[in-house]
Design a protein that fits this description.
319 residues; alpha/beta; six-stranded mixed sheet; three-stranded antiparallel sheet; elongated
Length: 319
Amino acid sequence: MSLLAPIGLLLALGVIPVLAMLLAGERRSARARALLRLRAPGRGWTIACIAAVCAAGALLALAVSRPVVNESHATYLRKDAEAFFAIDTSRSMLAAASPTAPNRLARAKHAAETLRKAIPDVPAGVASFTDRLLPNLFPTSDRTAFAATVERAVGIERPPPGGSALTVTTFDALDAVTKDAYFTPGRKRLLLVVLTDAESMDFDAQRLHDTLGRAGAIRTVLVRIGSSRERVFGREGLPEADYRPEPTARTVERFVEAAGARAFGEGDIGSAAARLRTDAGQGARVRLGTETESTDMAPYLVLAAFVPLGFLLFRRNVL
């Protein structure tokens, strides 16, 4: 464990005046009990209060010093596999259960980052699509770059779709991944993860079958985001009259049949991750080096400080 701001440990000195006030209060309480002929609670309570003050002060001081726990582990890279995460950025992805609830795009981004962790050694890229597919990041082993691209580069209608209809998304756009050099030539295991609300215009199922659905060409996992109860809310928090959720069950079924894909709901990310690991399989790996992950311990220390503070409140209100 290391401290990012060790000067914060000086906060522990703040327990000195607190202890002085505590002892002064104990003396006043003792005099009052003597006058009223009340039984004293015993020295054990005083010692426990002093220990609680010191513990709370130490925990808070340690939290302010920003302790982090560093864990190092080897990182590997698959040389035979690559993945692309295609995220639907049509306007319907703004739909949410309420004006303050996360919209579909935000949930799709979270799902993408979760699924990326299921295949940590497979280089992964990011693309957005509506009626066309746009690469945002080509397959890379850098998971930080992946997360930053998902969070910052992927946005609603970025870039704007070519059409102007209310529903602009089409699964036809996904066949570009097979012919526009999205994947590095020579890779044997190609994975495509599609995160969408599946509110798509009609698409050419035979065309997708000939591209995505070719035996062993690309293994596709579709994650359906959203429900029929969601609406697109305007700035005033009112649902927009132009948007109505579309039935998607048949659309998803046709896509799955055409592309040879597996479909999952957003509530079944665990199964989608397991499928993705199965599709990735096992292959030759090379060691890239060592990666260090840091865990910030400050929030846990602050929570722990509530234990002695709670004891002090109990002591104050009961005795």
